[in-house]
Amino acid sequence: MTEDILINVTPFETRVALVEQGAVQEIHIERSIQRGHVGNLYLGKVVRVLPGMQSAFVDIGLERAAFIHVADLRQNRSERSSGSVITPIEKLLYEGQSLMVQVIKDPLGTKGARLSTQISIAGRMLVYLPYDPHIGISQKIESELDRNALRERVQSFKASDETGGFIVRTQAEGASDDELKADQSYLSTLWATIQTKVKSLPAPSLLYNDLTLAQRVLRDMVGPHTGTIRVDSRSTTQQLIDWAKTYTPSVLERIQHYSGERPLFDIANVDEEIARALSRRVDLKSGGYLIIDQTEALTTVDVNTGGFVGGRNFDDTIFKTNLEAAVAMARQLRLRNLGGIIILDFIDMDDLGHRASVLAEFNKALGKDRTRTTVSGFSQLGLVEMTRKRTRDSLAHQMCEPCPTCQARGNVRTPRTLCYEILREILRESRQFNPKEFRILASQAIVDLFLEEESSHLAMLGDFIGKPISLEVESQYSQEQYDIVLI
User: Are strands 298-304 and 340-345 parallel, antiparallel or unpaired?
Assistant: First the structure.
């Protein structure tokens, strides 16, 4: 099935959409002032070691100190693999120490970036592991014969003085010897440049900046099923062509400059798809719908039949809705770039065969996802638990912020609740102060309620405290905002 890639470039932002059969499957956004840090190498400075948590904070020059756990230290991994006694972090790191680290997770919310000293640098065909001599093969290359052949070929290309190793990526399947050698040479040269910087730069310093989003598209997203790669910027098109000539010559003929009158993203209604991807509700063609909620710890997806009554009986209706929802869920995970723990709440099915079919359909749809996922079966409560590797912010976290009115609760207190809160506050203040008058500044909804249904309570309070209480509408106030002025 052919996939087309659309790249929309502006001075402030680059957006990429992967389109399959006219439907947007993935959206990636990179803003010039908010470029992600995953894959970047830094010379950091250890600012604090926490023995109780077996972790440390490292200053790499970002707004917040980054975080490294003992499990992400190269020495710890070596000890675990050899079965040796594990060395605690306080004996490996100390405050003020300079340390070469790589970002493996971007800062998320209030959390700083997560780091590792197990360095890896990705090329087109290979991933270079400067501190790990072994050669690994991508799990997506399933044939054992192909895996062994690739391992032997890459091993034969290694220089005699090479102490590092490689992971062979899926793109290397079917690659020529020249392509593998070129990738190996590029990565070795890049590593030598990084080592030179380590000796000359102070900590904290950036040693290596990962590729731009447009370049990562050529490196990571383009495959045998890719059709055209259309770019609406002439300069970016030329940059991608120059980069592809060196690293991915096989994709050169697919890169096209788009110069049509209609905006590139209008062709596949990408902007409309982005707007829908920021909504809680996803409508299904059958009339059912999904409700997707993101929290700090996990994401939940709930399936509802809605107006769908097309089955022969109730069980058949539920089964068909769940089948359609399974495909839609897999697409939404990619589209929204949801990661971490994800709980899927399908409509309850008593038939075990129906459950198995829905789970098989979901796993099949997930097969197109480049991000690693693990899916468990149905739990006793009828829920499906899964994880999806999270390295970058979700689409909602990139494009949205917490609601200032409800403080991200998803709801606001009713006008009546707020009226009673205001009355209690006036009573409290009347015991501490002795003004001539209390004036309530609030939104129109609150004032209207005080003038109508709650007028008697307001009058009773005024009589009780022996002070007049006046009302004033503040049109700029949200429903939950109010002030009590002592005059």
Answer: parallel
- Where does the pLDDT of residue 430 fall: very low under 50, low under 70, confident under 90, or very high at 90 and above? very high
Structure tokens that stand for 397 in this block: 């976290």
CA dist., res. 126 & res. 155, Å (int):
12
CB atoms within 10 A of CB 162: 14
Helix (H/G/I), strand (E/B), else coil: 137 = strand
Q: 10 Å Cβ neighbour count for 291?
A: 14
Residue identified by tokens 């100390």 is 94
CB-side neighbour CA atoms (13 Å) of 62: 27
Phi and psi at 273, nearest 5°, equal -65, -40
Contact indicator for 468, 438 with CB cutoff of 8 Å = yes
pLDDT in tens, 60-108: 998 899 999 999 999 988 888 888 888 999 999 999 999 999 999 988 7
Here the tokens at position 131 are: 């501190």
Residue given tokens 């065909």 in the structure block: 125
Residue 462, φ and ψ in degrees, nearest 5: -60, -40
CB neighbours of 233 closer than 8 A, spacing ≥ 6?
7, 9, 257
- pTM confidence score: 0.71
Per-residue CA distances from 450 to 24, 445, 473 (Å)? 50, 9, 11
Angle at 47 between CA 41 and CA 53, to 5 degrees: 95
DSSP 8-state secondary structure symbol assigned to residue 408 = T
Calpha distance 164→270 (Å, rounded): 42
How large is the C-alpha radius of gyration of the chain?
29
The residue written with tokens 């034969």 in the block is 156
Question: What's the one-letter identity of residue 227?
Answer: G
Segment 32-47, tens digit of pLDDT? 877 778 889 999 999 9
Spatial neighbors of 257 by CB under 8 A, at least 6 apart, are 230, 231, 232, 233, 234, 237
Pairing of strands 3-10, 226-231: parallel
Distance, in Å, from the CA atom of 238 to the CA atom of 245, rounded to the nearest integer, reads 11
